[in-house]
Amino acid sequence: MDPKSLVGTFNKKGQKIVEPEYLLFEAPRTQHFMTGSEVVKEAIRRASIDVSIAYPITPQSEAAALVGELYVEGYVGEYFRGENEFAVMSECAGASFGGARVFTTTSGPGTLRAYENFPMWAGSRLPIVINVMVRGVNSPLSIQPDTLEIGMILETGMLIWHAETAQEFLDFLLASFIVAEEPDVHLPVAVCIDGFFVSHTKDMVMMPPADIALTPYDPYRSPVPCMDMEVPPIRMMRDPFVMKSNYISYATHASWQQEVRAACERSRKHTIRLIGGLIEEENADAEILIVSSGTAVAQGREAVRLLAEEGVDVGIVKIKTIRPFPHQEVRQALRNAKHIFVPEFNVAGWMAREIKACIPDNDRVYAGPHVAGGMTMPPEVIVEEIKKVLSGRKEAVHG
Amino acid sequence: MGKEKIKINDEFYDIMPPEYQELVEEATYGKESRGWKDVGEAKELIEEHSLCAGCPESIAFRYVLACLPKPEDTVMVGSTGCTSLVFPHVAVHNIHSLFGNQNAIASGLKRTLALRFPEKVKDVVVLAGDGATVDIGLDMTLQSWFRQEKFTTICFDNELYANTGGQESGLMQKGFVGKMAPAGKKFDKVPLPEIARNSGCHYVAVMTVSKPNRVEKAIRNAILVAREIGPTYIQLYTPCILEIGKQMMEGLQEMRDSEGPGKRFEFKEYVSDEAKVFLDEMDAERKRKKKALRAARAK
Asked: How many CA within 13 A on the CB side of residue A47?
């Protein structure tokens, strides 16, 4: 079954199957005022999901439960609550190995509990979409927003996207399935949002109609065999590589890891087509730039406005995909900047490190300001940091 | 999937490995009467393996594959351990992902196959060692039973971590001196069969693999009950001759010595009321068919 052949037909809920480009760009949209959790429900309603598996953890619990409502309504084929995040991500893997389009959600400690699964998903080429509603992974216990966990999943082989707003979140979720399932990509995607700031606040969202849905997943376009005993080969290999201490074994493992990373890079063209570029620039010719991802960008945008009132010209570069990291785009956008500020909602400053690693003269990068543990980042804090650094009152690099 | 789907293109026939050619021509897919007696007679679904010479696990593995009621529509889930050295050679689709998550993988897989193939039976069979089933994966083993997931869990119980070199496992006997149990294991063998029964398994059997008829019956019962009713569990003693100091010819005797009355692997079987009705009906149906066949031949 070629999913494109289903375009124009109706699914069992009476939704018309449409091309992803139609759903994302052409379908008439109406305005709704909703939380990030409700955005998940509405995206999944339109995403032709086969299986979703849930586990409660703040702040993603509501979204996971709303997907359960869709299951009862008949929009999702199979749904249940698993026993913990490690098991849930393995249950998702089982479903994906069996040929399902799979969606799940997690947060903070749940992401880390599940961690061992993520490189396995990528290595097994399972195009699972996981929404990560990031939160602190601190001890003592914190349930507050914090982006530290994104820094911890960077090298799992998954695609990692970071949405700033509810609108972007909706569009990223819908696009992520299509990018994940492209035969030359076929990798999991973590669609990240900042917990509470996006998951729990209401925002205006322009929504395509509920009576259309994405083309379903075709497991037979996968670059690896679907484990359903419907496709050869029936015998997987002649000489298993596990436990072999020889060059061919090492080379096989090494080249497969390279291939997973190459597949991640190959996602660029599909991602650019469906979410319009890996970065966004606003007034990027300015000498001072604020560069970040997620809601730190929104706060940066307010800081730009406050500084403009004082006559200071500042631009913004928003990074939408963290894996693949948009090296060329960032290098190009930052080429004329003299001062680059990277505000982040975590104590480690992983985004600043990523940026420093890909541009020349990286002493232009000021890693900060940082807030953590659930603190908000008022635009005034960013303004203050920029003024301090530029006036020489503060050490240029910290964090 | 039948043999027609795995047929080799004529153009490429001669360059395919001979054992693959044999598999396509002679394997027992779609043979209703398949069983352990096919071992050595028909093409086996396990081609070769890197287990130790004389390892009882290897014969147990061959019995299990020979006894699958419908291999052409069976997907197996393994875990890390000696079995993961064999699975890549097995001619049914099989998944190895992580150590201990086999029953979680199988839960997602079975539900997906039921969703995608509503008109067809797709069996899912988990086959893992005792470390995977009882220690690192115990949570997921039990939770899949609580949830009444419709697949069979088979545990190859060799009473230790064989593949990593003989460390203590939850199914090791109390008092046994092994690696990580330098003063002898301090607690009893985990009573997983009893736990299985109390956790919702509809068919539970414990035995060694010294008697292939018995293994065959248990495997078929477990898979058919899982297909129709709910979770099932089989625990097979497959001693690690290497780690208990036996020679390669001594595996069978070790199993025989462990299955007598009162011994650890005395044959035990539990069948839920629901499963009993189902199995009795199946038995009666088989007898009816046999009788009808005999009558037809007599004419």
From this structure: 33
Identify the residue among A81, A85, A91, A115 best suited for mutation to test binding to B, counting B beta carbons within 10 A and taking the highest: A91
Tell me if A105 is assigned to some domain: yes
- Domain B3-298 = CATH 3.40.50.970: yes
Residue closest to A52 by CA, chosen among A153, A151, A130? A130
What three-state secondary structure class fits A323? strand
Q: Where in chain A does DSSP place strands (E)?
A: 16-18, 30-35, 51-54, 78-81, 102-106, 129-134, 159-162, 189-194, 202-207, 212-214, 279-282, 288-292, 314-319, 321-323, 339-341, 365-366
Distance in angstroms (rounded) separating the CA atoms of residues B204 and A246: 42
Complex confidence, ipTM: 0.95
Q: Chain-wide mean pLDDT for chain B?
A: 94
CB-based contact, A122 to chain B, within 8 Å? no
Phi and psi at A33, nearest 5°, equal: -115, 110
pLDDT tens sequence across A214-232: 999 999 999 999 999 998 8
- Residue count of chain A: 399
Query: What is the distance between the alpha carbons of residues A316 and A321, in angstroms, rounded to a whole number?
Result: 16
Q: Where are the domains of chain B?
A: 3-298
Q: What is the pTM of this model?
A: 0.96
Q: Which of A88, A230, A234, A241 is the best residue to mutate to test the B interface, defined by the most B CB atoms within 10 Å of its own CB?
A: A234
* Residue B223, min C-alpha distance to chain A (Å): 17
